[in-house]
Prior knowledge:
Elements: H1 3-31, H2 37-40, H3 62-75, E1 80-87, E2 93-99, E3 104-110, H4 118-132, H5 136-144, E4 145-150, H6 155-160, H7 169-175, E5 188-189, E6 192-193, E7 196-197, E8 203-204, H8 236-252, E9 257-264, E10 269-270, E11 280-283, H9 307-322, E12 332-334, H10 345-351, E13 355-362, H11 370-393, E14 410-411
Parallel strand pairs: 3-4, 3-9, 9-13, 11-12
Antiparallel strand pairs: 1-2, 2-4, 5-8, 6-7, 10-14, 11-13
GO molecular function, one term: metallocarboxypeptidase activity
Cofactor: Zn(2+)
Keywords: Hydrolase, Metalloprotease, Protease, Signal, Zinc
Amino acid sequence: MGLDALARLKPLLGSLLAALFVAAAAIVAALLAPGSPAAAQSANAHCGTETGDTSSAGWTSHEQLKRQLAQIERASGGRVGVEVVGHSNRGREIFAATVGSGDQVALITSEIHGNEKTGTEALLSMLRYLGSSDSARAREIRENITLVAMPKMNPDAAELDRRGNDMSWQEVVERFPQLAGARPAWNYYTGRLQNDDYSQRPGFDVNRDFNPDLDYVPRPQDFPGSSSRPGWYITPEAQAVRDVYRDLLDRFGRVDVFVDLHHQGPCYRVGDEDGDYVTLSLSAQFVPDPRTPEGARYAEYADRYDFDFSRQLNVAAYDALQAMGSSPFKNVTLYPQGLDLPGTALGSFALNGSGTVLFEVRGQTWTYGQKQKGQLTRAVETGLYGILQSVADGSVREIDPERYHEIPQTAR
């Protein structure tokens, strides 16, 4: 093409570029208009496409956990006590840290799934604060609650940055010879799951290995089981949590509160498909009420089950998050209801009389960057303090449990 032709095209090209620029600006403006989903959502939330550190490297490792717990114990001047309460299948320590001397008991666990890590960060932060602070809030919690935290209770899975532990069915049979010839448990991973290859290192979903009978011994006729049947305490990680829970029952007569800290998918929305992305979801319900026809098979636990208290605890967490007054902390929903999962820690312990709270935080380790990591960890802490403070000052019992059903639903 000659120079004269290029000269004649130059004004036309300029007009075209200007028009494209205006159109692009209009699209961006529409997306960012007040009330639009894009405007409501923080810039670092892209449903798995975030840039930055999206590996497990930015989270507390098992070795770092040991060092941090030891440091917290020393700095607390005796307020925090740390014990090794078990070992994972690969021999890593499972810790329980206790702070407070109140007659109300709260047990909180994190990383039962090893790629769900914000709970561990939140528990370490809370232990530092409650162990060292002389604030009125910290004193009130310590004086009224015995808090037992089990951060990273599935350390093998945490080190592999995956959901399941590191344990073969053959190892289970070696520990429980009566299971020779039984079909492997239904929650045994041997293939590919999400980003993980269990064909090389099989393992179990530990959060399906609990049983409301705290003295249960595995029986071959109970395998392979199903999601709606109790678990078996075949994994050392579930055994460690069960043993801590049972010890607290022996010492105090009850475990008032049990909270399990989890993660869910990164792209759920509040209310409907146009709502903000969910920061975390809460739930009080993991098995049908034993006093109803749907829960009749749990009738032996009916005198202990306290759904109203579980609902009050969930509302206390919700209210604390709403009081933060801004996104992402207000983006809280109710996890799907109607569950029948007696093999979960939450289902088993609810049947044993504990008020139970599920935290399902947005995303796993590969779906968010460092900024969102900090926001989500803070959201977990905020909800947990809402629970602990309301238990410590007694206000939780004044909450109308029916408010639980006013928490917005999750759009999936």
